[in-house]
Amino acid sequence: MELKIDKTMPSDAPVGVFDSGVGGLTVAREIMRQIPNEKIIYFGDTARVPYGSKSRETITKYSRQIVRFLQEQKVKAIVVACNTASAYALDEIEKELDIPIMGVVKPGAKAAVEATVNGRIGVIGTEGTIGSHIYSTYINQINSRIIVTGKACPLFTPLVEEGLWQDPVTDEIATRYLSGLVESGIDTLILGCTHYPLIRSTLGRIVGEGVMLVNPAYETARELKKLLEKKGLLNQKGQELGTERYRFYVSDMADKFQTFANSILKYGILSAKTIDIERY
Ligand code: DGL
């Protein structure tokens, strides 16, 4: 496979982060907060979102193309900031790469196991993520007695991409999706799609205070820090400010993405560039 790279990767090289669209920005935001010395190259596949309703083959092909693009940018490590791609493509791509790559599912599963008291965990995500049963697999590897109930919420991604974070339509759909999960007695709910933290307040209101919401982004950033430390790749140089620190690329609609990213990150990104991902 041509995904192999030069082994003399400098520790001040950027970390690549990707998602189907804006959702992965919730992970990038957490990396920026927890390891501010790291440079980030973000790719949002805005031309091909959503990933959640596509096949494993398609998502693996898309993920490989994005990984090739990120390698061309000389990233030192990759975070798959998309649950669907983590579920479908990560294991295969990891075998083909010689830079570290990690997803969001394992860290999210670990955080939920630590959070639950009654041993009943709910997971919401795309059809792909829920259908793959990847969360229950990882959770039950840690503790086989935990009962995991999954619910696919395919309409959440377009609602988030359209900016309907606080809207009666989102409330109505969330109530329909979540009522069965609440009745099943869960005390912990994994936001198993990186888009969902953006509607966290709506979700929290609907499931009620008795249910702890787990955003895998937090644990992902912690695990990334540990991984970079272990590989001797943590950036030891001082925080670099300016335009080169965080770079954003998309496959379509850069202006819309840019406005969105600015509202999520509060760092003020200068620009997002459109690239032709089909070339990779
Ligand atoms: N944000 C992605 C995830 O975490 C995918 C949403 C989508 O494109 O369907 O699964």
Q: How does the overall form come out from the CA principal axes?
A: globular
What CATH first level of the largest domain would be assigned? Alpha Beta
Spatial order of the strands in the main sheet?
Answer: 4-3-1-2-9-10
Kindly estimate the percentage of residues that lie in beta strands according to DSSP: 15-25%
Secondary-structure arrangement, i.e. CATH architecture of the largest domain: 3-Layer(aba) Sandwich
Cα(first) to Cα(last) distance is 13 Å
Main beta sheet, described? 6 strands, parallel
Average pLDDT works out at: 93
**Looking at CATH, which topology of the largest domain would you report?**
Rossmann fold
Which percent bin holds the helix content?
Answer: 40-55%
Question: Brief description of this entry?
Answer:
The chain is of the alpha/beta class. Helix content is about 45%, strand content about 15%.
Describe this structure in words.
- It contains 12 helices and 10 strands.
- It is of the alpha/beta class and 280 residues long.
- The chain has 2 domains: 15-103 and 219-279, Rossmann fold (3-Layer(aba) Sandwich), CATH 3.40.50; 106-216, Rossmann fold (3-Layer(aba) Sandwich).
- Strands 4-3-1-2-9-10 form a 6-stranded parallel β-sheet, with helices on both faces. The chain has a 4-stranded parallel β-sheet with strand order 6-5-7-8, sandwiched between helices.
- The longest helix has 17 residues, at 56-72.
- The chain is globular and about 50 Å long.
- Residues 19-21, 23, 49-52, 82-84, 125-126, 129, 157, 193-195 line the site of D-glutamic acid.
